[in-house]
Amino acid sequence: MILMIDNYDSFTYNLVQYLGQLGEELVVKRNDEITIAEIEQLQPDFLMISPGPCSPNEAGISMEAIQYFAGKIPIFGVCLGHQSIAQVFGGEVVRAERLMHGKTSTIFHDGKTIFKGIQNPFVATRYHSLIVKKETLPDCFEISAWTEEDEIMAIRHKHFPIEGVQFHPESIMTQYGLDMLKNFIEQYKKGR
User: Fold this and answer.
1) 152-177 residues labelled b (16+ CB within 10 A) or e (exposed)
2) Where's the Glutamine amidotransferase domain (predicted)?
3) Is residue 186 annotated as part of the catalytic site, yes or no?
4) pLDDT class for 128, splitting at 50, 70, 90?
5) Rounded to whole angstroms, how far apart are CA atoms 80 and 167?
6) Whether the Cβ atoms of residue 8 and residue 49 lie closer than 8 Å to each other
7) 109 in active site
8) Torsion sign, CA atoms 87, 98, 76, 102
């Protein structure tokens, strides 16, 4: 079962719909409607942190959940979720030089884990004004995707099953979004 922390974002249900197409059981909880203890009781196989209209500091339980469950269950963050992952581990989230709301970018990647078998480069849709500052990304992460302008578009923890993407895999204008989500589940599932 996948637990999706919803950061009050309209894109959350597009993500849920995509994951449903993959045959995954989903539970969706708003970021102020669940506690760490309740997450533990649910015993999710995966934790996903949705996009949202705010910064990681206003994302309810998102950062606390990432911190608590890091290394215990696989975690995947999209947009705000990705920024929250970076910030939990000491990265800095700053205002992007370019505002990207509904704009597409060419994304380059390392071909591993979620990007296995994905065309390189591919086109993805971005909706964000904040970004993870490259110089502050902790050593425990590798940059797994980037733009031509060298902006961080995805990160992967070197030791824990944690990944984040700045772009929106669930957007209709993102190529291979469903494949990336499927790759995440396939990569990190435990003998299911």
Assistant:
1) bbbbbbeebbbbbbbbbbbbeebbbb
2) 3-185
3) no
4) confident
5) 10
6) no
7) no
8) positive
Q: Whole-prediction pTM value?
A: 0.96
Q: State the Cα–Cα distance between residues 164 and 145, nearest whole angstrom.
A: 10
Provide the pLDDT confidence category of residue 97 given band limits of 50, 70 and 90. Answer: confident
- What is the pLDDT at residue 70? 98
Residue 25 DSSP SS3: coil
| Predicted local confidence at residue 156, as pLDDT | 99
Q: In total, how many domains does the chain have?
A: 1
Which of these is catalytic: 24, 151, 163, 170?
Answer: 170
CATH number at residue 77: 3.40.50.880
Count CB neighbours of 17 within 10 A: 11
Known catalytic residue at 168:
yes
Note the pLDDT tens digit of each residue in 37-78: 999 999 999 999 999 998 999 999 999 999 999 999 999 999
Residue where the block lists tokens 């086109």: 123
Name the β-bridge partners of 131. 94
Give the domain range for residue 19.
2-188
| The pair of three-digit structure tokens given for residue 187, joined into one six-digit string | 């990569």
CB-based contacts of 82, cutoff 8 Å, min separation 6: 49, 132, 154, 155, 164, 165, 166
Q: Kindly name the residue from 24, 79, 82, 163 that is annotated as catalytic.
A: 79
Out of 82, 109, 128, 168, which one is annotated catalytic?
168
What would the pLDDT profile of 149-182 be if each residue is shown by its tens digit? 999 999 999 999 999 999 999 999 999 999 999 9
